[in-house]
Amino acid sequence: MDQRKLQAFLSVYEMKSFSKAGEDLYLSQSTISTHVLSLEQELGVQLFDRIGRRIIPTQAGHLLHDRVRNVFRIIEQTRTDIHDLNNHVCGKVVVGGSTIPANYLLPMVISDFCGQYPQVCVDLRIGDSIEICQEVLAGNLDFGIVGGFVDHFDLEHRLLLKDKLHVVASQDLKLDLPETVFPENLKDLPWIQREKGSGTRNAFESAMMNCGVSLRDLRIAALVQSTEAMVRCVLAGAGVGVTSFLAVQEYLEAGELTIIDVPGLDIVRSFYLIHHKARTLFSCSRMLMNSVEKHIKPEA
Prior knowledge:
Keywords: DNA-binding, Transcription, Transcription regulation. This protein is an alpha/beta fold.
C-alpha cells in the first residue's frame, strides 16, 4: 500500500472531511478522493460511507485506521529514536491545552523551546479540560496542560500552578451594581457562562457551592465555548463573567473591565501537567515537558 494513499485515508478519517484533509496535506480535494478510491479498489472494500455530506467510516475503515496509525507512529518513533542516538532533538510534539494554558502560558514556552531546538515542530491543540484529558488517554497527545483532570489510572498528573479567578464586568455594568456584592446577590446578575467541562466553570461552581449558591440559581445571559468569547461578551456589557487574571489583564489595565470583589467568594483552580503513564515519550517531548515545568512555576 502506498504511503501517500494511507496518509490521505488517515487524514480523511480523523477530520471526517475530504476537503479538510486536502487542506491539511496541501493537496486538492480531488487528489485526496483519488487516493482513497484507489486504496478502496486495492483492498476491495468500502472504507467510508458517503451519506449526504457526512463521511462515516465502515468497519473496514475503523480497522485500517487503527493499524495505519500504529504504523505511522512506529515510523515517527523510529525516525526520532535514530536522531536521539546522535543527541539530535527533532521531530513533532503534539501538546494539548485548555483555554488559559494554551493562550496565555504555553506560547512563551513554545517560543523559547523552538528557538533553542529549531528542528522541533510543536502542534498545539486547544480544548476544554475534559477533552484534553480524553485526547491524552486516547494517545492523540504527548501531554497536556489542563485546569482540571479526569481521575483515571492511566493518567499521570503533576501540579504546575494555582490560578486565582475573578468576577469581572464592564465599567458601565458595574455602575448599576450595589457598592458591595455578596454571594447571594450573584443570582440577580446576568452571567456569561462557560460550557460544561471547562476548568473555569468547575472552579466557579465549587466556590459558589461553598457559599451556598448553585449555578442553577444564576441568570445565564449567554453560554459560550471559550474564554475569548466570554471576555468579548463582558466587554460588550452583556453580563458578568469569571476568568483568570491572565485573560483580562490588558483590559483591566486599560480600564475597560473591572474586578467585582465578592466577600467570601474565593475562586482558585489549579493547572496540571498530564500525560499517559503507558506512552513512550521521546526526547523532544520529554524536553518540552521539562521546559514547561521550568517556565511555569507554582508562584507564577
